[in-house]
Amino acid sequence: MTRILVVDDEPQILRALRINLRARRYDVEVADTGAGALRAAASHPPDLVVLDLGLPDMDGVEVIRGLRGWTTVPIIVLSGRAGSEDKVDALDAGADDYVTKPFGVEELLARIRAVTRRLSAPTDATAALRIGQHTVDLADHTVTRDDGTEVKLTPIQWAVLEKLLRNPGKLVSQRQLLHDVWGPEYQNESNYLRQYLAQLRRKLEDDPARPRHLITEPGMGYRYRP
Fold this sequence. Notes:
Number of helices: 8
Helix content: 40-55%
Radius of gyration: 19 Å
Order of helices and strands: EHEHEHEHEHEEEEHEHHEE
Strand content: 15-25%
Number of strands: 12
Shape: globular
Mean pLDDT: 87
């Protein structure tokens, strides 16, 4: 049974999530402070954390950093902070996804299912991945259409694509992509990413104007949707 730690200082949200998650056969523990969350995670390590940023004793980003000091457990941020800077800070600290309040329980449950699917997915880097009518082999650095035609990608296109594909379902922030592909001095050059994602969609998506796999999360980053 998947164990979820829910961290929020609003009693009604804790109660609603506890009821809904347990009804779907998740094992649920709750905490209403950052310190309580860190203690709970250390004593009974969860499989996933749902975390509010606006906690009474510390900022949720500090909780993320505290968890990331010793665990890679997936973290879904649940917060009333809608600003893109808050979202980017949380993602850069190590969060895996971000849901803005007010939220629908079904949306949050869908994000949880997506993360848990990623946890159970094969991690073999040689596994073939699909984008539209294309098969991507990360080990061989090849992209092949279903008709056998090979699609050529530039080294930068490969680097961007590989970063997303190695994190299926996970929201990868713009800052992280720029840092990992171009270097720390390029972390504000978001126009680079727009150009390269547009190129990748033209080469790989069935309908580049309505991508199904290489998804933009406005103001935050990008994700590969398997």
